[in-house]
Amino acid sequence: MKFLMDLMSVITFSPPITDVTEEDICENIRHLKKNEWFQRDLSHADFRKLIVSNKDVRFAIGKLNTKRLKRNPYKYKYQRKIQKVMCKA
User: Fold this and answer.
1) Cα separation of 51 and 13, whole Å?
2) What is the percentage of the chain residues whose pLDDT exceeds 90?
3) Can you point out the beta strands (E) in 1-89?
4) Closest CA to 59 of 68, 48, 50
5) Three-class secondary structure of residue 64 per DSSP
6) Is 54 left (phi over 0), alpha (psi -120 to 50) or beta?
7) How far apart are the first and last CA of the chain?
8) What span, in angstroms and rounded, lies between the C-alpha atoms of 89 and 81?
9) pLDDT over 80 at 3, yes or no
10) Most buried among 15, 42, 61, 84, using CB within 10 Å?
11) CA angle 72–82–80, rounded 5-degree value
12) How far apart are alpha carbons 11 and 24 in whole angstroms?
């Protein structure tokens, strides 16, 4: 099924569809918790609710490159991406 979906995305010139698992989300959240800005977001009730239950925010967190996140968890780029998705939600 995944092959078929990837083939469809190639045919329609769209980016490949990525599978984000709950393990990816949990691992990335664990690395993001090392950041002061993420700790502040978790302490804010509205943002915490989005991080815990909003599927778009959780997908964006799970989609982050885990290897890069491990190497340099303080990148401003990750903060912008997550906060942009939270503002849309």
Assistant:
1) 31
2) 36
3) none
4) 50
5) coil
6) beta
7) 29
8) 13
9) no
10) 61
11) 70
12) 28
Would the pTM of this model clear 0.70, i.e. be above it?
A: yes
pLDDT reported for residue 68:
84
pLDDT number for residue 12: 57
pLDDT tens, position by position, 8-26: 565 555 555 568 889 989 9
Q: What is the DSSP string of 10-33?
A: HHTT-PPPPP--HHHHHHHHHHHT
Type of residue found at 20: V
- For residues 14 and 55, is the Cβ–Cβ distance under 8 A? no
pLDDT tops 60 at residue 63: yes
Residue with tokens 């918790």: 33
In this structure, what are the phi and psi dihedrals at residue 73, rounded to the nearest 5 degrees? -75, -5
Q: Which two tokens stand for residue 7?
A: 């083939």
Structure tokens that stand for 29 in this block: 């959240």
pLDDT tens digits for range 31-43: 998 888 899 999 9
